[in-house]
Specification:
The complex is a heterodimer of chains A (173) and B (128).
Chain A (H helix, E strand, L loop, with lengths): L1 E6 L5 H12 L3 E5 L6 H15 L3 E5 L13 E7 L1 H11 L7 H13 L2 E9 L10 H20 L2 E6 L2 E7 L2
Helix pairs in contact in A: 3-5, 4-5
Chain B lengths: L1 E6 L5 H9 L4 E2 L13 E3 L1 H10 L5 H9 L4 E6 L10 H20 L2 E6 L2 E7 L3
Parallel strand pairs in B: 1-4, 1-5, 2-3, 3-4
Antiparallel strand pairs in B: 5-6
Classes of the chains: A alpha/beta (173), B alpha/beta (128).
Amino acid sequence: MRALVYGGSGSGKSAFAEDLAASLSDRRIYLATMPASGEESKARILRHRAARESKGFVTVEYAGDPVRLRLPGDCGCLLLEDAGNLAANALFERGVPPGEAPSMLFEGILSLAGQTEHLVIVTVDVFSDGICYREETQDYLSCLARLNLRLASWADTLTEVVCGLPIYHKNSR
Amino acid sequence: MKILIVGGTGQGKGEYARGAYNVPLADGGSCGFDQTATAGGINRLHLLIRRMLSEGLSPYDTLLKGLISREDWVIVCDEVGSGIVPAEAFERDWREAVGRFCCELAQYADRVERICCGVPAILREASR
């Protein structure tokens, strides 16, 4: 099962994805992709990690190129949070050209999918604030949008979360 | 009935709420913080939350508890979380708080509707 979970800030998408992962396997790994820079994100990471441990996830923190990541063996369900960080890490931390990043990241996710029975990917809706940003942010938006399209086309399910409630856009299982 | 109505800005949510439910709503953009207890509900909840945060008040303390204890309300709120995460902490906190507050309200609502171009889609309808 390959599931894509989509939603805005505070939409409840993470909690939904965690519950979905819990329903798929008892052997769960949580892949955290946010680089720990700044006190706020460190505090956030610690808070999230504590919340997940109580939900039975083993946490792997990795902000590098996903194609290089080797998961601990015997992974029943990988929860990847989130695709927005993958795109930001590629463009802003590793300097990947925006035109190449979506394909490169998609390949990385395929590599992760090969190491787990089930994969739940969280991705972010950052596309509706009507603001025209400077070039590097527009590149980010475009990169993430194209990655989302690839993922949604490939995934078995696409679920948008609003107010913690699911809207099932695609289910091809 | 407890009704939560969400959607993007300018989608006709307030007009829809008036037509479908016809109850007087406090305007979150201008109402007193205690006025929400007496009105039939709240329009523009996202602005009320913003004003509360800017005064250093937690919307969870009195507002959420008050709403949970009531049998009937109509609450209308913009979805504000679908953009690039802002650089300013207050803006980030506000978006997060609006989203989380609506997640909470949705748990207690009998019906959650999302309005797109004036047309409602029901996200959840509780069987009572």
